[in-house]
Amino acid sequence: MGILEVKDVGKRFGGLQALGDVNLSVQENTCHAIIGPNGAGKSTLLNCLVGKLIPDTGSVMFDGNSVLGRSPHEINQMGISRVFQTPEIFGDLSVMENMMIPLFARRDGSYRLHAIESVSTEKELITRAEEMLEEVHMLDKRGMHSASMSRGDKRRLEMAMCLIQSPKLLLLDEPTAGMARADTNNTIDLLKKIKEERDITIAIIEHDMHVVFSLADRITVLAQGTPLVEDTPENIKGHPKVREAYLGETQQV
Amino acid sequence: MLGLGKKDTSLLLVVVALTMLAPFILNPFPSDSAMAQFNAGYPDLMQRFVIFGIFAIGFNILFGLTGYLSFGHAAFLGVGSYSAVWMFKLLSMNILPAIILSVIIAGLFSLIIGWVSLRRTGIYFSILTLAFAQMSFALAYSVLTPLTNGETGLQVNLDDPRVLGVSATADGSIPVTNLFGLEMRAAYDMAVGPWTFTFSAGYYVCALVMIAAFYLSIRIFRSPFGMMLRAIKSNQTRMNYTGLNPKPYTLAAFVISGMYAGLAGGLMASMDPLAGAERMQWTASGEVVLMTILGGVGTLIGPVLGAGLIKYFENIFSKINDTVLHSWFAFLPDGIEDFFVSIIHPFVGKGWHLTLGLMFMLVVTFLPGGLVEGGQRIAKAFRKKEDDKPKSPSTEPAE
């Protein structure tokens, strides 16, 4: 039994069957990649996991509890953090404030009227935020206005904001999309380090095969809304069905 | 000090000094000079400065921090005024219970309106608040006449019960509002040479309340709650996916700012015990938006400055009429004098809105951060000059 169990999940948008009978089991402390060509339903599946979309059929269980019908903030409080394709950070706030908010969310829950004591009195949380920033090599940017940073830095900040919550499951939506080679490699190194040092389960959606094969323990290939195969990276590489899904069109030409 | 950082403490002290010394600061001209009409140091206007300051401080907690633009905050101010006057009619002329009730009723009222309006964001939220405020205005103006006395406005009368006070004083007049015996209209005139400074009890009560309100708003700005509100303005998606529910945060901000408006309304009624429906009209809601933007959205001191500036314009600029203009330009030859007067005429007196509008356009275009940004730029320019000074001798070529 995996930490995340997706059973017979289907989702239809009007006449389009975006997902049909998706079954997926993500084991604890592994990195599970979901790959597939454009329009395969990867993002739809991810949105079903975090509460942005509610699937028409099937069930999604996380850590023994159903996530269906819960809102994104409740699902986050269950232990799932999500990194977006384009970094979603608090652009108007400083880097340090960006780090404090997830800490407050973890300590105080989804809402607490905490309006009198100054943030600067929360020494323990500040120390933790600084340690995390140190770990992603951003401590020198702590006072920076986060919207003015480079995309790579925003990505690292977003990752740090997710990690500081010590999630049980980290969902990554194309974390290297649109990045230069060097930035991609930095991200891979960071993720590898995270994997080694923490008890964390990672589910990653990715286009870039280089990223997938350097990180994943297991890979699910999605095509036209249904999983084609699920296997180890070694077996996926030469799998005929995968080649067909990815290269099918070019063969017809 | 008082749980504030160094910068905030000095800002608070500046505000304390300004409000406490306002009777001097606002009366710079001798009372018999031609410039005396620019003196703003009379109790009625000073009270309005600080009361609208409170209103704008509260509005800024919602608009400045969360970015939710409410066009209906005057409704809460009006509700606060009505509540206070009812307390004067039923309980006593002491302003303390009246103000407490104003804050509570405005809080409850904003809880209901906020709960409905906050189902939408952006322009739809603004329109919903506007609709609610106009509904409240209509209710106060006609439908709820037994409660609000319609277009005449709610007043205290000689036959009001006032269970803890007296219906009428010994000489048969309506008792005046007081704080445990200290009459709000009590004033002391101090003459220093040609200057006259007026110290009014009502003004100092309002000023102390404003300082408390300002202090509370600093605490809110620096608290985790304030940070969450800024996070809502910045990125609600990230907020949700960080495990935070933005709804109760925005609702809390809405209710807090509604209570500030109620406090302002209660104080207004305490200074002059009547309440009319026009306090709830949409123009009054728009005015507080202007004050906040003019002063600097999301800054601590900005709304207070904006409130002061607009009220100064409304009361002082509007008094400049053609006679005054002619006396200013009297030194010019007749034809040129008339020419200048006719050019300036549309911008002063009844046309003060035009000047205000122009100023608003200029501020929004060139100083999006409002007067506070203007002040910061000036301070920066001065600092640069000072930085340059010690360097300048060394950079000069040796001769």
Automatic annotation (TrEMBL), chain A:
It is an enzyme of class 3 (hydrolase). PROSITE patterns: ABC_TRANSPORTER_2. Its EC number is 3.6.3.-. One of its GO terms (cellular component) is plasma membrane. Residues 4-249 form the ABC transporter domain. Pfam families: ABC_tran. Keywords: ATP-binding, Hydrolase, Nucleotide-binding, Transport. One of its GO terms (molecular function) is ATP hydrolysis activity. It comes from the Bacteria. This is Lipopolysaccharide export system ATP-binding protein LptB.
Automatic annotation (TrEMBL), chain B:
GO terms for molecular function: branched-chain amino acid transmembrane transporter activity. It is found in: Cell membrane. Signal peptide: none annotated. It comes from the Bacteria. It is a multi-pass membrane protein. The chain crosses the membrane at residues 12-29, 49-71, 91-116, 123-144, 201-221, 248-268, 288-313, 325-348, 354-375. Pfam families: BPD_transp_2. Keywords: Cell membrane, Membrane, Transmembrane, Transmembrane helix. One of its GO terms (cellular component) is plasma membrane. This is Leucine/isoleucine/valine transporter permease subunit. The lineage of its organism: Bacteria, Pseudomonadati, Pseudomonadota, Alphaproteobacteria, Rhodobacterales.
